[in-house]
Every structure is written in structure tokens, then in C-alpha cells.
Amino acid sequence: MRTKVLLASPSFAPAFRYGGPIVSSLGLCKALCSLGCGVKVITTDAAGGGAVLGSRSIEQFNSSGISVVYCKTQFGEDIAPGFPWHLWAGIRWADMVLVNGVYSPHVLVAMIMSRMGSRPVVWIPRGSFQQGQPGRRLKRLWLRVLEFWASRDTVLMMTSDAEIRDSSWALPFLRRMLVPNGVSIPEREVAFANTGSIRLVFVGRLHPVKDLPLLFRSLALCRRQFGKSVELLIIGTGTTAYESELRASLDELSVADLVSFAGPVDGEPERVAQFDRCDLGVLVSKHENFGNSIAEMAAAGLPVIVSENLPWNEVTSKGCGYVVPRSAEAIAMRLSSLNRPELERMGARARIWMREEYDWSARAELLLRETGWFRA
Hints:
The chain has helices at residues 20-34, 55-60, 83-93, 105-116, 137-149, 161-166, 212-226, 240-253, 268-275, 292-299, 314-317, 328-336, 340-357, 360-371; strands at residues 4-8, 38-44, 46-48, 51-52, 67-71, 96-100, 121-124, 155-158, 175-178, 199-203, 231-235, 259-263, 280-283, 304-307, 321-324. It is α/β, with parallel strands linked by helices. The longest helix is centred in the C-terminal third of the chain and has 18 residues, at 340-357.
């Protein structure tokens, strides 16, 4: 008899505006299906930034065997009146419940109903605990409430050793298990241009935690101190106000001519097409629980440059890119010394690395083994 897995999540594909958590949740669900599990998702139509998913985008979304119920949000993206009703039906059906997120009313509803239904829970915080103990009283109270409803059988699923380390303060009585994210391998690899300036690509939400201004300062230093123009392509979206801040920062540093904004690019073929003519993926966030964009770019055949605080130090030992201190000077120095032929060799190794070690099916099997639900 196949294992029945329910994912309770405040948002789900095609709400890709939320970034990496949506991509990884979809990848995990598809992999569970491929292993023969029954998979259902109870979620909302929240699309990020106050927007909702249209019926057409939901219909066009290929769920690959996943049964998804999108509950209509009201009064903002945090309230979906139909969520508890559909969730209870899903919990009665499921053998195991995966719960995405922390600071959402839907998470509390899922924890309460899972306990009422005596279902084991795998709680996936998606890096929410890495920011340290919340300073605001309301968030501290919220965690106390979740702690009350989390049963001793609840397991916290972490995606990196860094997330386990940085989240040690939260819910210490719960068992942690390490199940890193996987990545899908595009059918084709990127095409390098080998002409003009070195071109970086960033993929992700436009959010202060990604620290794009640090990259902008690095580009300015490359031009001013090393006489090299390094271009940057930004794929992703954020609030209008924050994007305006980013553009103002570019103007202040006189590097607006080096940076282009592609906006959101959701489909895999479309994203690989954007990677064409790029030389290097980049991520220098203040913190990440995993960093899906690095895996995506490497899987497409791009070498990567990451800051040393992120859980990707292996890129150096695997010969797939560079790890640098999180400072504009260090990043600029590395960018100024890049060698295109070596970057292409690194990109080829990166694609092989992702295929051999980041297969989603292996990640899903690890999850089932860790929770005792794997059936060969």
C-alpha cells in the first residue's frame, strides 16, 4: 500500500514569486509521486505581494500527479476561510503531514488539526528560525502557541547543516533531520557567449536579505580599482518600493549601465534561456537555509560564486566555482581575476555534480526513510 503524504502550505506553485520555497516544495512533491506516494496539497491562491493566482494560471499549471486544492484568500493573503475544511479532509486521508512555514495562521491550523487527527508531522520552517530569536513580542507569543500544539512526534526538517546550527534555539525538544533540497536538471545546458564583459546572473526575490547592494558596490569597485566592467542580470521580483531603492543605489554608485532587471522568469526553459550568455551565477545573501538558486544555476551548467556564510562551501572542492568573504572588496577582487575558459570547465563540472548528488528522488527517499515510511 502506497504512503499517502499531505502538504499543508500557505502557498504553492505556480506562486513562484515567493521564491525558492515554492520551487523546492514542488520538486519534493513531484519526487514523492515518482516514488509511488499519493500526494495531496492543501494551500491558498496567494501569489505574493498581495496578488492572487488566477484560475487560468492554476489550470495551466501541470501538477504531475499531485492533487492540489487552492483555497481562496480573503482579507489579505493570510486568511483563507476554506483552508481548515479542506485540510481536515486531507488529514483524515493522509499517513503523514508536511507543514510548510512558521509565521502564518495556516501553519497553526495545520499543527492543531494534525494533532487532533493523530498524524505524524514533518515541519519544514524554510529558514524562518535562522534569523534568530524574534525580537517582537507577538512573534515570540506565536512560537509559544506553535510549541504548545507541536507534538513530541513532530520532526523539524532542515535543508542544511547551517540551518540546523542557526536554528538550535528554536523548539529544542523536537528532533531535527537533514534533508537537503534537490534540483531538476534542465534538458540543455547554458550557452556561453565568450565575448564582451563578464556577465553575472542573480536569481531570487528582491529582498534586503539577498543584499544586492553589496553586489552593486562590488561592481563599482571592479570598474574603479581594476578597470573591468562586470555586468549583472537580475532575475526576480520584489516590492515596487524596494526595487526603487535598488535602482537609486545603482545611480548613486554610477553602475546602472552594468545592471539589467529581467523581472520574474518562472519556466525552466525560459530561465535557462536567460542564463545564456551569462558566465557565472552569484549569491551573497546575509543568510540562506539552502539557496535554491545556486543549485538551479549549477544544474544548468553555470559555475557559481557564493559568500562564505552560505551552505555552499563545497563549490570550491568540487571545482564548480568560488567561495569568497562577504565583502565588496573580496568579491570585486575575485570578479576581476575571472578566466573564461576555466569558467566553462567549472560549469560542466557543476552540472555533473547536481545530477549525481542533488537528485530530487534521492531526497524524497531520504525523507521517507527518516520518517519510517519508505517502502521498497
